[in-house]
Amino acid sequence: MYDKAFAPEYQGELGAALGVNSSYEEVLTIASRARSEAGTALERARAALAVAEANRRLGRVADAGAAWRESYRSARTAGDAGAMSWALWSGGTLARQCGTLPLARRLLTRAVALADGSGDRLAHGYALAGLAETGRIQGDYPAVAALHEQLLEQGRAHGEARHMVWAMSGIAQMHRNTGDHAKALELFEESARIATEADDARGRAWSLRGIADVLSVQGEPDRALALLSEAEAVCREMDLASALAYNHKMRGNVLYRAGRYEAARDMYTVALREFREMHEPRGVALSRLGLAKSRARLGRDRDETLAELAELERDFGRIGLRHAHDMVIAFRAEVTGTPAAETPVPSCATTTPRSPATPAR
């Protein structure tokens, strides 16, 4: 069994005023007022944490960065290791969102250590969850699969629906990316059910996106698009800028798989603009890949396509996204008619090669 979803990142008096389904503009307004009225360093740390999370979800990365650092400094002044851990969790999550995955791992690893020492079980769980998600995004499945399962069991043991939904969705995504679509669909549907019963609108929106992805792969684009429309309504109601952009990118994926290349191109263009506005390089690169594939299907010059794929391959390598990197190689093999292992990097690329960053382990 599990309780109604709650948001432990809203602490102190903010926990009574805000909930998991509060819109992020509302969170920002209330938390900013609490920060200006804070009488102690710990109160400032808690308010600044909420400000950071609201700004991050709204795609305002500079403001989010300033706020989590303020939260950390205030927590350090207060001598509260748990509050310091929450601030570093926020900073690590922001770093992951901005595509700086090695930094995300460093901050989240430190957050785990601080939470462990403080005895804050929720901060410890969230920091571990952040580490697991960072590894999953990088495609380092062997390193994080067991951790996802461990976090799911912890969520079940303590009746924390939001954590169960997160862990189950992550496990589902790994099954989807490794080709076990039936298991992925089962887990995404279960996470959507739990989110619905626990009144976790945000978790439901992400779960619906996962269901739509698998249905699309299985040849059901209209059902997938309907689910994405339902999820989009939640994203707009809660001001989930990043989730909305990923929803639009997934809509592009669904349209592309259905052979609706013009509509896919237009949707990837929307997602690309949204990701650029919030300075989210992972989303930018993924949207650019979708655009490149759509334009190629619509008759774009072959050499131009190969040049862009070469640039994207370097970008994915630099960010550390293995699954996306493999998708670039696979599509280039389609364009050239050459087996992926033999596909050359085109000489017409005009960008200066950059050494890929080695993903942190």
UniProtKB/TrEMBL annotation:
User: Record's superkingdom?
Assistant: Bacteria
Region Disordered: start-end pairs: 340-361
Q: Which InterPro entries match?
A: TPR-like_helical_dom_sf, TPR_rpt
Q: Which SMART domains match?
A: TPR (SM00028)
* Compositional bias annotation for Low complexity: 346-361
Q: What is this protein called?
A: Tetratricopeptide repeat protein
Gene source species: Streptomyces kasugaensis
